[in-house]
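Suppose a colleague, Dr. K., hands you the sequence of a protein chain of 327 amino acids and asks what its three-dimensional shape might be. Before reaching for any lab equipment, you can write down a predicted structure in token form. Begin with the sequence itself:
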Amino acid sequence: MSETKTAVCLGNFDGVHIGHRRLLEQTVRTAQEKGLKPVAYTFSSHPLSMLGRATPLLTLPDERRGLLVQAGVTPVEDDFARVRDLSPQEFFEQVLLGRLHAGAVLCGAGHHFGKGASGDAKTLCALCVQAGILCAVLPSLTVEGRAVSSSWIRECITGGDMEKAALLLGRPFSVTGPVLHGKELGRKLGMPTVNQAMPQGRVTPRHGVYAAFVLVDGIRYAGAANVGLRPTVEGKTVNVETHIMDFHGDLYGRVITVELLHHLRDERRFSDVEALRQQMLGDIAQAKRVCAQMTQADRAERSAAPKAGAPKGPGKISLDKSKNPVI
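The predicted structure, expressed as tokens, is then:
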């Protein structure tokens, strides 16, 4: 990087969830107040994967990068192997001061850094004081008494609780990717579907059928999506197969986004194709009702025009200052 002074926020930022976004917003404010460039320092691969404990991701690198840019910061992605053996002081001096030219450093209360995660928020603030630069540690953001975290969101997604996942992410969990050629069974049954591969490395939702919104060229359609192996037709790889309501057109090769809203039922094998067809009709009808309810709720929320920063959806959100070692 150039020698432009920066306000650096530290984290993995997997999912760029509502807790991350609060840290990013504070970083942007601090940068504006101090005349600094807002930067998010993170790693190109999740540190746990480098330590032999692979973690399914909420967001792949490109998506995470885009969300960070939308939040108003410049992402700086480092190779974890490059810094994993640096002591906290060496990391501070070589990376934060030497490479990023930090004039302010921000992190969450639970942040650790340095070899063996030996440095914490107190360590970071002590180093910043010695260097004469600002350090800000934000308290944990909690929902229903629990700190918001990427691991909690993964639990929600693998358990099929898409409503809670959306609350914690600040947006629905979605799958974006090209439409692939499938067996076209849905079309033969009068309910055409589009197929997408579940991206490798991403967290896989609980297998089953979901009410969904589908984004095509910026237009949002109601849909019914099946995530899983499609056991009735001997599927062997996890994919997302979606019926898009009130849509007519060829989407093969096009990139679309499917937002998973509500888990309707688990995936299961049917005795024959006719039994599958009848179930699909019921799934589509149920998904249509859920999407209509969510659309109505979204319109009501928009018309109510809540104050900026007000929590959306169910669940109590608060700042847990008891978990903040230093401000």
